[in-house]
Design goal:
Radius of gyration: 16 Å
Structural class: alpha+beta
Strand content: 15-25%
Number of helices: 2
Largest sheet: 2 strands, antiparallel
Shape: elongated
Number of domains: 2
Number of strands: 4
Strand order of the largest sheet: 1-2
């Protein structure tokens, strides 16, 4: 059976993910895929599972965290 690259579980319904850089992973759940692949917010550390925001290669979960980290000009919403 395929083995999850995050938790090591052998699972007959595991799935494969290939990233844009060509890296290949096997996961037994979306949770394990998120732990391995989703970026963390540079300010608060949470996993960014939605779109998030990016400033010069640094990822944030929201404009609040970006502002707290000294980044201006990013917005979660279009006004």
């Amino acid at each position: 059976m395929p083995t999850c690259d995050t938790c090591g579980n052998d699972y007959d319904k595991a799935f494969n993910v290939t990233t844009v850089t060509g890296d290949q992973y096997t996961f037994d759940s979306i949770e394990c895929a998120a732990q391995k692949l989703a970026p963390n917010c540079a300010y608060c550390g949470v996993r960014i599972l939605g779109h998030g925001l990016e400033a010069e290669g640094t990822f944030y979960c929201c404009d609040h965290c970006a502002k707290k980290d000294g980044v201006s000009g990013l917005n979660d919403r279009v006004g």
